[in-house]
Amino acid sequence: MSTEWQDRIDDFWASANDESTAVERMRALLAQRPQGDPEALFEWASVHDFVGREAEAVPLYEAALENGLAGRKRHEALIQLSSSLRLVGRADEAAALLAERWEGAELDSARAAFRALALRDAGDADEALLVALGALAGALPQYGAAVARYAGE
């Protein structure tokens, strides 16, 4: 992806406060990208999420992933797809989507948080608490080992 186009996307999100114009503004940006571009599909899904159209965002996220979205954007798409799935009543799918840890991924705590939300909505509050505490334990320098041990129990 060109840095110029990514700069325009970053500017869009930095100023995205008007839901009534967001979709059209994003549509204009996406016109600069080829059809089926995974990054463009991801941004298109994201703007649908932003304006509360989660049901429309789901297949767009899936298309972005199927078309080869990679790196950090792939992880962002998985988190956002999971969130959308949860909000449209598909919490089991949302939790399963985020079940695997991402080796060295900086978004792993976010992955765990959204998985915990999905597990709770899917009716598995105990597993949701385990996931949340497991993620939190790594951020606790003094009590992290104890929290991790208790979560394991």
Write the layout of secondary structure elements.
Blueprint (H helix, E strand, L loop, with lengths): L2 H12 L4 H12 L7 H13 L3 H13 L4 H17 L3 H7 L10 H14 L3 H13 L6 H9 L1
Describe this structure in words.
The chain is mainly α and 153 residues long. The protein has one domain (3-152): Tetratricopeptide repeat domain (Serine Threonine Protein Phosphatase 5, Tetratricopeptide repeat, Alpha Horseshoe). Helix content is 72%, strand content 0%. The chain is built from nine helices and no strands. The chain is elongated, with a radius of gyration of 17 Å.
Estimate nothing, just give the exact number of structural domains.
Answer: 1
Annotated CATH topology: Serine Threonine Protein Phosphatase 5, Tetratricopeptide repeat
- The CATH architecture comes to Alpha Horseshoe
- The number of distinct β-strands equals 0
User: Over all CA atoms, what is the radius of gyration?
Assistant: 17 Å
Please give the CATH class: Mainly Alpha
What amount of the residues lies in strands?
A: under 5%
CATH superfamily: Tetratricopeptide repeat domain
**SS-based class:** mainly alpha
Measure the end-to-end span.
46 Å
What's the main sheet like? none
**Number of DSSP helices?**
9
What's the rounded overall pLDDT mean? Answer: 92
Order of helices and strands: HHHHHHHHH
Structural shape? elongated
Uncertain segments:
none
Q: In percent, how helical is the residue content?
A: over 70%
